[in-house]
């Protein structure tokens, strides 16, 4: 059975950075990695946008920008999402498997509560067509993740006393080679 690891933590606790580090380590090892990352875009020290990186193709696109007066059809409290990019990301998720390592960054309120965003992520995870999956999920959604999947472990990057974890550390604990 495929291993499913959940990465959680508060905003800017390093979830995406850890996933990116693990992705690079897995690539160096010659493993097939599929899925998506959602790296933040900063102007000076302010987070102004979110991109999406398809891990199979390496293509990166703008996913969302800080919400302003201009509105899109898909929004959260702070972000306006570009539907065309969301649709593209969902297509990339369906094409992510089979793979050795699946990474989905992140499944949040859009997916769990509104059935929007990376909705194809649920089907891809449930397919089990990977050796290991790393899922980024907010702390408030952990219980819903437990109800949905059999999780191997949870890594909480914002826990008091949490060890500093690198992609190499995490890679070495996975049964991928």
So what's the oligomer here? single chain
Count of alpha/pi helices: 6
CATH homologous superfamily caption: P-loop containing nucleotide triphosphate hydrolases
Mean pLDDT rating: 89
Proportion of strand residues: 25-35%
What string gives the helices and strands in order? Answer: EHEEEEEEHEHHEHEH
Total E-strand runs: 10
CATH class: Alpha Beta
Distance between the termini: 16 Å
Walkthrough of the structure:
- The radius of gyration is 15 Å and the shape is globular.
- The protein starts with a strand and ends with a helix.
- With 177 residues, the protein is of the alpha/beta class.
- Helix 2 packs parallel to helix 4.
- It has one domain (3-173): P-loop containing nucleotide triphosphate hydrolases (Rossmann fold).
- The protein is built from six helices and ten strands; from the N terminus they run βαββββββαβααβαβα.
- The model has no long low-confidence stretch (mean pLDDT 89).
- Strands 1, 2, 3, 4, 5, 6, 7, 8, 9 and 10 form a ten-stranded mixed sheet that branches.
- Helices cover 31% and strands 32% of the residues.
Quick take:
The protein has helices at residues 15-28, 83-94, 109-114, 120-127, 142-148, 167-173; strands at 3-8, 33-37, 40-43, 46-54, 60-66, 74-75, 79-81, 99-107, 130-137, 153-156. It is α/β, with parallel strands linked by helices and 177 residues long.
